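Message: A physicist's question: would you kindly supply an amino acid chain plus fold tokens?
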Amino acid sequence: MLEILYQDEYIIAINKPSGLLVHKSFYARDAKIFAIQELRNQIGQHVYPIHRLDRKTSGVLLFALDTAVLKIMNDRFATREVEKKYLAILRGWSPEELTIDYDLTNDDGIIQNAITYFHRLQSTKIELAFNNQPTSRYCLVEAIPETGRMHQLRKHFKHIFHPILGSRPHGCNKQNKLWLELFELKGMMLHAHQLIFNHPITNEQLILNAKINEEFSRVGTILNLDLNKYK
């Protein structure tokens, strides 16, 4: 059963598990289960995804319950009237805050402007030898993408040399291998923890929060991060 964060006669939001595709994808033809069909079966009616989350990204995922509401919300996403907030665990200690304005190229070879703002929430260092150093540094950040390009956060954090832990292919392969061998980490430490927008019909502001999953919490414990407010 999918965790429902909000539901009325117009929209519904879930806390998407990591590993679940939103819909069928050319890039993941092995998948047999999708959020659209699971949610449809769970509530007994058609749902229309308003935005997307990567397969490995968990967190708030919003659906419309009819096509008129879908259009309203699509327009609001396009005009940046919806604020998306993500939690990510990065390799190294990132700047305290930064706006990354770095163009990305999509699968059709088209260059698109992409902007991400983030600020560092916590920093940590553990006894984990890596690259001839006896310890390893990590940090927890909150990221707010102003644009919605494919794999934007993963690509942007790799661009500033602070890749998201567990991100493949836009990450640190050696670090990911180390965590797989030592801690059996197969997921990616990226979670859409909050969505802020005005309701498409009532215009009332909604703030939807999604709790972090067990894998994210487990990694936080290994790294001595305080994630209690996100559980």
Q: What stands out?
A: The helical segments are 35-43, 67-78, 152-159, 173-183, 214-222. Residues 21 and 29 are 10 Å apart (CA to CA). The radius of gyration is 18 Å. The chain has five helices and twelve strands.
